[in-house]
Amino acid sequence: MRRRVLLLVGATTSLVLIAFLVPLALLLRTVAADRAVQNATVEAQALSSLVATTDRAALALSVAQVDATSPYHLTLFLADGTRLGAPAERSPLVELGARGTSASTETASGREIVFAVRDPSGGGGVLRAFVPAAELTGGVTRAWLLLAALGIGLLLVSLAVADRMARSLVRSTIDLAAVSHRLGRGELEARADPTAPDELGVVAGALNGLATRITELLREERENVADLAHRVRTPLTALRLEAESLADPRDAARIGAGVDGVQRAVTTAIEQARRRGVEPGTARDGSDAAAVVGERVAFWSVLAEDTEREATVDIAAGPLPVAPARADLEACIDALLGNVFAHTPDGTPFSVRLTPRVGGGATLTVADAGPGLPAGSAALRRGVSGAGSTGLGLDIARRSAEQAGGELRLGPSERGGLCVVVELGPPGAQPRPGSAP
Fold it and tell me: Can you tell me which residues the record assigns to a coiled coil (predicted)?
């Protein structure tokens, strides 16, 4: 932007200077030529008054003295053919002057001026003044150099002023961009300078208003999540008491574990809402994928037995450190396995496989022998489901993977169902560009 402003001002100033200085330079050359011709004419006219009143000897001396001290060449042609002063040939213009006509003309080496005069005997004579080309342009070169220096000086001054203005604009633009980047990283306290020049100040004010509105919306979201947690806590407590009163310890333990899972999910939602606005990746401690996957698969294995599903589990020996926090990884696994139980008939086998990745992290693969995804399905779009569910399961898994520097891929399994592959980056991995926090 700064360079463009300088180019624009430089081009505009140059055009103005050219339009002003070029005609002025031509005018100076014309004035210099007219001045030289006028001076030569004055000297010649001063001699012409002596021709008719002075004898030849005195006239010859006067013409010689004037010619010697003048920058112009003065020559007097008398009627008898005598030539006084500077040596010169009888040109056609001199012949015209001998017939009584005064005139001037341009030549290759200067300007020739003739005046018709009368000598003491009454005969016709011609007084010739020749102005060399150097005299016609005397002082023009120096004047042109001064004009060029003046033009360059004006151009430099205009560029200096434009550069200062451009610096102010560019600085305000850079500050505005820096504030927007800070807001993008979650630093919601960042504010732009509303006193920036012109339209930039308007944009800065609008950006500040947007930041304030985002802060208010996040505060409202945190309050809503807190209200939700408070409302859910009471029925969860009642459900836990009901589970503890069951006669079968295994059923009590299983339902109690489910209640604990719901409690953890609610707690995680609150923590995530409180972290909202923090730069992605800064509040993650990572987790051991082997331990977390093993625990969640053991939890879902009980339900698999009840629904007569064959579960094939292949978990690499741990530890397998990955970037997602334990709660996020648990939510990802529960979402994938929950989809298997929700969208495939009872008795449908499934498999869970966890392997280490080259360079760190792990690869989680969940495959089933169900009907798979219909053609053209948009299962990864948040809130979109072809089976009447909320459509959030696969999106939760996708976001967990992308926030861990990995990705989620869908494809057909070896048994004809759905195969979901989740790449989990190592601890400290940066989130993929465009991933939502």
Answer: none
